[in-house]
Design brief:
This protein is α/β, with parallel strands linked by helices and 287 residues long. The protein contains 9 helices and 9 strands. The strands form 2 sheets. The protein has a 7-stranded parallel sheet, with helices on both faces. The protein is globular.
């Protein structure tokens, strides 16, 4: 697939050309919309490449970002019809599989998860996700001025990863900073915080989770951690309850499989079965 990486003279990707040539006839893609999404992706990649060597998306990165474009477009601008279409798919899925999924509603669409192998570029996908979300929420505000985003929060498992994310975000030309309690900060920035510094009640070295409100964009690195009843899982759910979250991990399946309480495992299967938008585990796909 490496020969399809990059763009033609009109700044359309070669992946777009392949999809138009081979898959448009299936009927579930709109050529004009697909071109719009592809052009958006070009702009995102340009943005995060400004301080780097030119980034060339691998096919699985492109597809992750393309599916997210399609999802966010309908989430913000076509939600009721989107719910109907998803539930039609759920009915077909349930009729043809042993696993039974519950139906979607408009309140259960605000999380996407990416299960991608270690070293597959999840960090760059995260950076593009930030740009995508900003684009679509700003577009939605044009039609509904009640829409509001409080903060963009990146939760990490430890301080070392927080430092790495700050470096990578700055390389991608995305404003960011460590979250500092009781300090006025630019809310257009990405606030990076070690999840160990969140607490029910803030103290000298921690901050109360409720002080962030609920309408945040939350990005969760190592999203498999804390799934099984851990207080961290509750904290990140509350932070994005009226907003949106993106989660990233290579091992969501393993974390759910290791859950000893059957009812919790079943709940997680339903949640992540409906929120994992792309699963890439170094499997070779044929196009």
């Amino acid at each position: 697939m490496e020969d399809l990486e990059g763009y033609n003279e009109e700044n359309n990707s070669y992946f777009y050309e392949l999809i138009i040539r081979k898959y448009l006839k299936l009927g579930f893609l709109n050529k004009e919309k697909l071109k719009e999404y592809d052009e958006n992706i070009y702009q995102y990649v340009r943005h995060i490449s400004e301080n780097r060597d030119e980034i060339s998306l691998k096919y699985f990165q492109y597809l992750s970002i393309l599916f997210t474009e399609m999802y966010l477009d309908r989430f913000f601008l076509d939600r009721e019809k989107f719910v109907d279409d998803l539930n039609k798919f759920v009915q077909v899925f349930n009729n043809n599989n042993d696993t039974f999924l519950t139906e979607f509603d408009k309140y259960s669409l605000n999380k996407l998860a990416y299960m991608s192998a270690t070293g597959s570029g999840k960090t760059l996908i995260m950076h593009v996700n930030i740009l995508q979300y900003k684009k679509y929420i700003n577009k939605a505000k044009y039609y509904d001025n009640s829409i509001r985003l409080n903060k963009i929060i990146l939760l990490t498992p430890n301080e070392g990863l927080s430092n790495q994310h700050i470096e990578e975000l700055r390389l991608s030309n995305i404003p960011c900073n460590f979250f500092e309690k009781d300090t006025l900060q630019d809310e257009s920035e990405v606030f990076v915080i070690d999840i160990n510094k969140l607490a029910e009640k803030g103290k000298e070295k921690t901050v109360s989770v409720d002080s962030f409100e609920k309408n945040n964009l939350v990005l969760v690195d190592e999203g498999h951690k804390g799934l099984s009843g851990n207080v961290w899982y509750d904290f990140r759910k509350r932070l994005s309850e009226e907003g949106f979250s993106f989660e990233y991990s290579a091992t969501f399946k393993q974390a759910i499989k290791d859950e000893k309480k059957k009812s919790t495992a079943e709940l997680l299967v339903h949640q992540y079965g409906k929120s994992i938008i792309f699963d890439y585990s170094y499997i070779v796909y044929t196009f």
